[in-house]
Design brief:
The longest helix has 5 residues, at 44-48. This protein starts with a strand and ends with a strand. Strand 1 and strand 2 (11-17) form a beta hairpin. By secondary structure, the protein is mostly beta strands. It has one helix at residues 44-48; strands spanning 2-8, 11-17, 25-30, 33-38, 72-74, 79-84, 91-92, 97-103, 106-111, 116-121, 128-129, 134-138. The strands form 3 sheets. Strands 1-2-3-4 form a 4-stranded antiparallel beta sheet, with no helix packed on it. It has a 4-stranded antiparallel beta sheet with strand order 5-12-10-7, with no helix packed on it.
Length: 140
């Protein structure tokens, strides 16, 4: 098992990888709580930039957004929707905040991973969401 100390948005997390990070999903322990997370292969640029391989996992605050007209944002972790920063019809750029999910007494900002227009919201403030729940959809 690999252990990491990660700082994200001025918050520090103790992370322990509990499974094989070569799989598409792996369990990780974050500050004592266990999550199942998706694992993406490092890009060619990331591999070329370092002599030692670095495990690359999507940040806890980023949702994977599939490309295409039916692009959807799903919950990357379970928690409570604390606030929503967008409404249907809003145009967003990559990195713009979409919403905040509170988990383990910490606010996790879910950011857009691409440019697009918000088509629909499937959540409301105060709602409990599970990992993988549909949060919102892009129109384009």
């Amino acid at each position: 098992m690999k252990r990491y100390r990660i700082t994200l948005d001025d918050q520090t997390f103790d992370v322990r990888v509990l499974g094989d990070p070569r799989q598409s999903e792996v369990q990780v322990e974050v500050n004592g709580e266990i999550f199942t997370v998706g694992v993406e292969a490092p890009s060619a640029d990331a591999e070329a930039a370092t002599a030692e391989p670095i495990p690359k996992a999507a940040p806890a605050t980023s949702a994977r957004i599939p490309s295409g007209p039916d692009a959807a944002v799903t919950a990357p972790l379970p928690g409570v929707v604390k606030s929503i920063a967008v409404q249907p019809g809003d145009e967003v750029a990559a990195g713009d905040p979409l919403l905040v999910i509170e988990a383990m007494k910490m606010n996790n900002v879910i950011r857009a991973s691409r440019v697009g227009t918000i088509a629909a919201l499937h959540i409301s403030e105060g709602r409990q969401v599970a990992h993988g729940d549909l949060l919102l959809e892009f129109a384009d």
